[in-house]
């Protein structure tokens, strides 16, 4: 399958270089959502998937487009993204020592998933029309994947079944030696819950499959606003929710709940600060008066709607806080922190809480760098939402606010891997474009010129 992945990646990359950037973006999104991320090849010791080939080609194509470059304006969020990458590199340079070159290779692959995707989106989605059309295409892809997911959850039959054995974690060649130590992922139809099998589609784990649906529910719901599309809003979003539910995983269910609750909360938006204060007070109350556990045990337990490892995640946070003096500055790098025996008695430490993962790998400054990106984007979107007059602008801003909150909710249950970092970057990139003062400006100016030319004829 390495040859197939190489051919698909190279052919798609060449097509992306030859076609207009907005169509190249569609090729990239189709690859992310439909092609198995675990099918990759090793290039100079670095794992490269088809999505990474296309991400690199897409960014190059965007930078070669003069019109896109003229319409791009640097904003604070872009600076924070670059600063975060620099913080990660500095932390790894200290913790990896002689293995720093290998760490650079791994981190460069991660940058193709995140930074390349982010800036490609920032360049391409520069007006509402492009954004709405992209989300419509994404909704079609997700409906198809939802059908496949529901079918897999009922029958275990999937077109992706059997491809997992070709992933690098099962590679027996000398080049794939370091990837064989990775955690063995779940196979199709191997886990059953409540009478359904956990669907995973093209992803190495059911959680990733379900999370990919939860991220886009707000955007699909809010952007199907035209009369001819509005009638499809409920069935399309319903299908997407079913797709997320087909993973039969608590973390995607939490993401779906956050998405639906966030959409419903819009009418109470002016009370947002009061709800935040109330939530903080409730956490303090549970912390001081609970005799059994910290507040995050209670919260994680409520998140585990379908069962799962909420107690493990609570113990993981306890271990992270206990050992904070050991790693707070630069983290452990890519080494196992060694907390497994005190968490659940096994040697391997599953850093399944995203925020613990960032702190353990890159130190507290790595966690702060990521949180700075998220909260800068959130606050900027809230400001633009309150200042916007047109309904469509308010819809876009609120949908993105909810999608960013979904990423925060998912982070409590899973550390992004596979395609999830790229999908997060797609959401952040769209948000960065929308908060840019030049979003939709060229489109509006072009329309004004057209109207002026028409009035003069």
How does this model look, in words?
The chain is mostly helical. Helix content is 67%, strand content 3%. The protein contains 23 helices and four strands. A hairpin with a 2-residue loop joins strand 1 and strand 2. It is globular.
Summarize the structure.
The protein has 457 residues and is an all-alpha fold. The protein contains 23 helices and four strands. Strands 1-2 form a two-stranded antiparallel ribbon. A two-stranded antiparallel sheet has the order 3-4.
Poorly predicted regions are 171-184, 444-457
Distance between the termini: 60 Å
Number of helices: 23
Overall mean pLDDT: 85
Based on Cα principal axes, name the global outline: globular
Structural class call reads mainly alpha
Give the helix level as a range of percent. 55-70%
Domain module tally = 1
Radius of gyration: 22 Å
Counted beta strands: 4
| H and E order | HHEEHHHHHHEEHHHHHHHHHHHHHHH
Beta-strand content bin: under 5%
In the sheet with the most strands, the strands line up as 1-2
